[in-house]
Amino acid sequence: MHSKYYQVASVDPSARPKNRTMVFRGFLQGTQNLLSVTDLRSEKISEWQGDGKLHFEICWYFTGSREQYRVAGEVALISNSIKSSYQEFGEQTKTSLIKQQWSNLSDKAREPFYSSSPKAPFDDSSALPSPQDKPVISVNDTNEVDSSSNAASNITSSVVSNNVDISDNFCVIVFTPHTVDYLNLKSKPQQRCLYDIQDGWKERMVNP
Ligand SMILES: Cc1cc2nc3c(=O)[nH]c(=O)nc-3n(C[C@H](O)[C@H](O)[C@H](O)COP(=O)(O)O)c2cc1C
Predict the structure, then answer these.
(1) Which residues contact 58 (CB under 8 A, 6 or more apart)?
(2) CATH 2.30.110.10: does it fit domain 2-114+169-206?
(3) Atom of ligand 1 nearest to the CA of 119
(4) Among 35, 52, 55, 192, which has the minimal tally of Cβ within 10 Å of its Cβ?
(5) Does residue 18 contact residue 10 with C-beta atoms inside 8 Å?
(6) What pTM value is reported for the model?
(7) Which residues line ligand 1 (CB under 6 A)?
(8) Domain layout of the chain by residue ranges
(9) Which residues is 67 bridged to in the sheet?
């Protein structure tokens, strides 16, 4: 399915554009906000941290229908390790979003979150043990584990009650659209429509 991936652009501190492919992970419940996940240590995160640096543009092409959506707006970073600028929901919703997105990942997709930092020089021996290699403990188990034991002191990530060990590097990205530029190459004549949150998402047809 070609619609599973989109390209996401940011701007680096030298005002240079940066672009990368990401997996679309669904919409934030009850909203039109798009979700993706990433590693907090990746470069895109520093490009999106700080006031006035939250802009993104997603370019999403659907090969079957020959439609392109360019969605621009603001990013919010949701992680157990950083304070979120996203005011739309409280701690509980934040925690359940992180849990839900983490549990959607396969073991293989979780591995990089426990390895060395993205873009660090490659070192075959540097992979950290993932939770499959570690004893799995839940919140309920912690009381029974001697806190001086390796099993307890090696747990560096957040431990949640359903036995899923969420890496502190895990980050959910919420993309809140402010504008959409839609292009349909299949329709005759080709169709281009602009939408803006400022105009209540009113459709504006323009030349392609
Ligand atoms: C098909 C495909 C899907 C990808 N999905 C993601 C993703 O969902 N999240 C992510 O952080 N990186 C994803 N990547 C890797 C990014 O494109 C990029 O290489 C990486 O995130 C580092 O980007 P940065 O240095 O701009 O942070 C994907 C790459 C490909 C080819």
Answers:
(1) 6, 7, 8, 9, 34, 69, 70, 71, 72, 175
(2) yes
(3) 25
(4) 52
(5) yes
(6) 0.84
(7) 5, 18, 20-23, 36-38, 42-44, 118
(8) 2-114+169-206, 134-166
(9) 62, 184
